[in-house]
Amino acid sequence: MSQLTMPKGFLWGSASAAYQIEGAHNIDGKGVSNWDEFVKIPGKTFKETTGEVAVDHYHRFKEDIALMAEMGLKTYRFSIAWTRIFPNGTGEVNQSGVDFYEAVIDECLKYKIEPMVTLYHWDLPQALEEAYGGWESPQAIDAYVNYATYLFNAYKGKVKYWITINEQNIFTGFGWMTAMHPPGKFNDEKTYYQVNHHVFLAHAKAVLAFKEIMPEGKIGASFAYSPSYAIDSRPENGMAKLDHDNLKSFWWMDVYAYGRYPRTALRYLEKQGVAPTITEEDSKTLHVAAQKVDFMGVNYYQTATVEYNPLDGVTPFGEMNTTGKKGTGQVTGVPGVYKNPSNPYLETTDWDWVIDPSGLRFACKEITSRYDLPIIISENGLGAFDKKTTDNKIHDDYRIAYLAAHLKELIKASDEGCEILGYCTWSFTDLLSWLNGYQKRYGFIYVDRDEEGGTLDRYKKDSYYWYKEVIETNGASLSVE
């Protein structure tokens, strides 16, 4: 057999998010975001870390993009901070913010790097939170569409690939169910599902607006997808897996791709009294927009194992590992439906995330079979405790092994018929890992900073040179047969 590669024109990329890399939190007219406020609450982040400086990409983007170009990156996925464009969420435009992102886009284009823009990566303008509870109000839908439409017009002709929403399932779950993200509410299940419905409508209306402005462009959402396995072949565990998938994955993916909720999951939520209010007009909007979505964006990190959870079993509110001390994460689930025990056949990261390269191939094949949509892997990567040597080297062979194993499975998925447009590692530089501070490193570029600060100097890790060769050979260097 001959060596396999990705198709010609494949977008080898890397990714970031505004709050996690930019810093410059209060200059050049930027408004206050919900994350700017949330991190001030004691105990919410590792060692009280914030994104006020982050890794200072705002002032160093030319240096960072030059490093991307040297690597040979074909696409760079980054998010726009809503508060740099509309400091108050709506109203007056901040031209400095518009100019900043145009400069980032132009710098990418200068090096023939395809800019891939995420409109919303969790940083909601605080003004909208204070005015009407942010996403809890349908007013947020119009504010988001106004913001999105402005950017479509501003960068038309320069940006082809757009992502509407990043990991809707994560920011809503952590925001309204476990209090780990803004607005920090706990077990507000009814609001949680209504918030998701509002976000779906914002996504859908943005897609419809986009296709009026840029019919030749490509748009979709990025979903944090963890395919699942039943823990064994007992029927109750197979049923638990089915219910888990409908409630944890297809609840979002079916709306993006079909414009409707999974029927049995909706019925379950209706019986629990927590289903969202859905109008006939809402259903029509979601359905029409789904026909115009161009790809399914997938942030893949791990798979889930599913087992039936008795009524007196574990709840969704177990402790999450944010310290990197392996084995401190707790099993969670929904009483009477499912729970997610550890997989005895797989290793985990220091943060208790399962390492399952074959799960990426599984995800692509399942999406292809269920939705028949092109796929963009918008995030995949390994968070680890990287160390810099005295001669400024970073030997992250474990990251190379992790990414190589996942890419081999991605190439196999492509060969098996999945249409995969691009693959973005998380992340290009080290960055602020939301709740985990700066100790959890993901990048090809080591940034000299920790929870106390640092020089912010950039250093290439071993993985930087490895990924450069992967890109140069279009994956042939991985020797997949």
TrEMBL record:
Q: What is its EC number?
A: 3.2.1.-
InterPro entries documented for this protein: GH, GH_1_N_CS, Glyco_hydro_1, Glyco_hydro_1_AS
Q: SUPFAM superfamilies attached here?
A: (Trans)glycosidases
User: GO MF terms on file?
Assistant: hydrolase activity, acting on glycosyl bonds
Residue positions of the active site: E379 (nucleophile)
Keyword entries, A-Z: Glycosidase, Hydrolase
Statement: the UniProt record of this protein carries the keyword Hydrolase: yes
Pfam families xrefs: Glyco_hydro_1
Q: Does Aminoacyl-tRNA synthetase show up as a keyword for this record?
A: no
**Would you say which domain of life the source belongs to?**
Bacteria
| Protein family per UniProt | Belongs to the glycosyl hydrolase 1 family.
Protein name as annotated:
Glycoside hydrolase family 1 protein
| Taxonomic source organism | Enterococcus eurekensis
